Amino acid sequence: MRLPTPLSLALLARLASSQGTMPMMRFQCSQLVVERLDPLVNPGTAPSPHLHQIVGGNSFNISMDPLTHDLPTKSTCTSCTFSEDFSNYWTAVMYYRARNGSFTRVHQLPNEGLKGNGGITIYYIAPSNKKAAVTAFRPGFRMLVGDASRTAPGGPARKICHRCMPASGDNRNINCGAPDTPEFPKGFCAGGIRTIITFPTCWDGKNTDSPDHMSHVAYATGAGANDVGPTGSCPASHPVVIPQLMYEIIWDTTPFSKKELWPEDASQQPFVWSTGDTHGYSQHGDYVFGWKGDSLQKAMDARCNGDTCSVLELQSTDEAVKCTKATDVEEEVDGCESMSFPFGARTNYT
Questions:
Q1: How far is it, in rounded angstroms, from Cα 132 to Cα 122?
Q2: Sheet containing 335-336: which strands, arranged edge to edge?
Q3: Are 91 and 160 in contact (CB under 8 A)?
Q4: Is residue 220 classed as helix, strand or coil in its secondary structure?
Q5: Which candidate, 150, 207, 189, places its Cα nearest to that of 218?
Q6: What is the pTM of this model?
Q7: CA torsion sign, 11 to 16 to 19 to 21?
């Protein structure tokens, strides 16, 4: 496959300008581990109901109790570009389903202008107004967007979407604007399938978590459907502006772009999330904050842009890629013969 052409900081600036002149920290976090653990939704459970791909600090584990697990202290390395970021970020995993019913894991590609081993491109976006206050997340902060059990459109669907990418990249409307859809694309994608997951930008100012991992944060009112960064107004219940956290993942579907590998029914496509969802609705993103000290606040105050920042420490791509962890759940995750493994109990073929 022909990899996407590099995206320069100047192009990033033009892209941001077209959508509100937002300073965007945009950096690579390489693959840390792929396994069935979910310490946010299913703490202490191994294996968790479905498979995840995880990036960030190597202290990721089965429980990560917010009262005792300090990520910067417990981690010895991070798979992210900024060496002070020991946060963990994770999503569901994409699989290709063959006509014979077997499954093959779809690997990720590093994003445009970035280097690494698969993983996730992470964005932290501050308000365009440099005088506007933005409060970085606190130790113990965690949140979730999406619903792993979703089988139909609903909820803030505009915040989780997919795009069929051309070979040379497509930089229009990065926050779920057209031609993005909540469903999987229905045709071959020369540049793979891109997933965008966008988190809320308003916080209640008190709770670092909530029982559903969502209620302590909220999307702003009056924000455009595809706005980038904190826009609109935070509701009185959630008055504190926080950075817009966004995940961007490029799934390398190109090895499966052959007619004979796709379903005989032309109305179907062969990709499925590790939740068992063949439509695309159940993708979700989990986040556990783990920046060292006040480093993220400094970066937000400085309105850092791209994957360099004068107030943050960087590490080389080689150092980031070296940061991996052994699996706690010993399973074969790259391929399987049936939907019941490693996806969990729920299946959704229709």
A1: 22
A2: 271-273, 94-97, 103-105, 335-336
A3: no
A4: coil
A5: 207
A6: 0.91
A7: negative
Q: Is the pLDDT of residue 87 over 90?
A: yes
Both structure tokens of 106:
């779809």
Could you tell me which residues come within 8 angstroms of residue 300 by beta carbon, excluding any fewer than 6 positions away?
124, 126, 134, 136, 243
- CA 120 – CA 20 distance, rounded (Å): 24
The helix (H) or strand (E) run that includes residue 317 is helix 317-322
The whole-angstrom separation of Cα 243 and Cα 239 is: 13
The whole-angstrom separation of Cα 197 and Cα 218 is: 15
pLDDT in tens, 282-312: 999 999 999 999 999 999 999 999 999 999 9
Tokens matching residue 186: 């229905």
* Nearest alpha-carbon partner for 323 in 23, 82, 19: 82
Cβ atoms of 167 and 2 within 8 Å: the answer is: yes
- Provide the β-strand partners of residue 181: 162
